[in-house]
Sequence to fold (231 residues):
Amino acid sequence: MKCIVVDDNKLARAALKQLIEKVDFLELKAECEDAIEAFNYLKKETVDLIFLDVEMPGMSGIDLVKNLDQRPVIIMITAKQNYAVEAFELNVADYIIKPVDISRFMIAVQRAKELFESKDKKIEVNEKEHYIFVRANSVLTKIQLKDILYIQALGDYVTIYTPEKRYTIHITLRAMEEKLRSARFYRLHRSYLVGLDHINNIEDNTVFLGKNHIPIGEQFKKELLKRLNLV
Fold:
């Protein structure tokens, strides 16, 4: 994956460069001292992944992401936690607090790799037979609809969670919802589609599916209660 580092701190860039060099599938193409330099670079060059600081002079990392027409996969690396919510609303792959250790870095880049490689994946649905096929290159994987716990939005991708595995697919949650026109599923948050059969408990604005807990959007709660078999 072709990547760039965007950080106004020279030592932080050097530390990231050392980590990137340890990963076989990463190729560092450029280092940018601020978001404006990165913006200009990305107007001319295409990359697959950006390691991005948040607080920088002139333009923040958040503003850079908002102004990109074509977004690569993005990992935000910053010294502060208070931008995490806004960052994840922009569907970044990960948000890491400095200083970055190798184990945390590897978790982030592996997730970025999954997102990048899912670009050629497609979904084929057979509602009558109660399954879907996930296509990656020439390999088709069958997933029973009854096994889907929930589906999470990640920008132009979704991740499908089953008890055994997860699948990251290049499709929006809205498109996925259209394909899965089924009484089995309900969108209870702008970022989540859940399998109703797997709901164990509902407490306040949270749904529990085994060990997983999913927030309920206020505008979705009333309809969700209608869909459940209340006694």
In short: The domain at 121-227 is CATH 2.40.50.1020 (OB fold (Dihydrolipoamide Acetyltransferase, E2P)). The longest helix spans residues 102-117. The helical segments are 10-21, 35-44, 61-67, 84-89, 102-117, 173-179, 218-227.
